[in-house]
Amino acid sequence: DIQMTQSPSSLSASVGDRVTITCQASQDISNYLNWYQQKPGKAPKLLIYDASNLETGVPSRFSGSGSGTDFTFTISSLQPEDIATYYCQQYDNPTTFGPGTKVDIK
Amino acid sequence: EVQLVESGGGLVQPGGSLRLSCSASGFTFSSYAMHWVRQAPGKGLEYVSAISSNGGSTYYADSVKGRFTISRDNSKNTLYLQMSSLRAEDTAVYYCVKDRGVGSPEYYFDYWGQGTLVTVSS
User: Fold this and answer.
1) What is the pLDDT of residue A91?
2) Pick from B44, B50, B110: CB nearest A100
3) pLDDT tens-digit profile of A2-26?
4) Any chain B CB within 8 A of the CB of A91?
5) DSSP one-letter string for chain B
């Protein structure tokens, strides 16, 4: 099975800060990686697909990059409504979620 | 607008059974693969099961294999998860999830329901 790790597990940043989350796969998954946002008490929402493509309707401050085993998710300017847990998900074989990164406002 | 509405959750004793349903609307249900994903209280997301658009192909996580059965009724636009031999560790919110993939699962989750809570406890 493909294992996914994320770091950090949690972070606290100020409004307007640039926030970066990394996700690492235990083997090459090409670009078969998605990023989801889950706000408290809500279902997850797809933000980024195929590692770097922004889902329709998602603000452009969210972005993703990477391929192979190492991936990055970035919020260019953190907003109060971005408070959530973010999960990466590989869908190369067949699928695994990362453990999540909880983002708070400092 | 795509809508996925789960039902059937509740409290069940260890060793018991429960059937979850997911009513779908806003898209051509019979064309898309569907999934169940769960989340234990305060924990991360765990993949459970997949089914192809025609129901002919299914996949299960090792943690539920042999105990859970996924199925669908395309005439009713409904997805099911039959759960048996339930354990305390099956306690979770169960989400019904639509796949981007037409036909076979691509494991790319573009729409999620709001979830239904299953609690396994005596």
Assistant:
1) 95
2) B44
3) 999 999 999 999 999 999 999 999 9
4) yes
5) --EEEEE--EEE-TT--EEEEEEEESS-GGGEEEEEEEE-TTS-EEEEEEE-TTS--EEE-TTTTTTEEEEEETTTTEEEEEE-S--GGG-EEEEEEEEEEESS----EEEE---EEEEE--
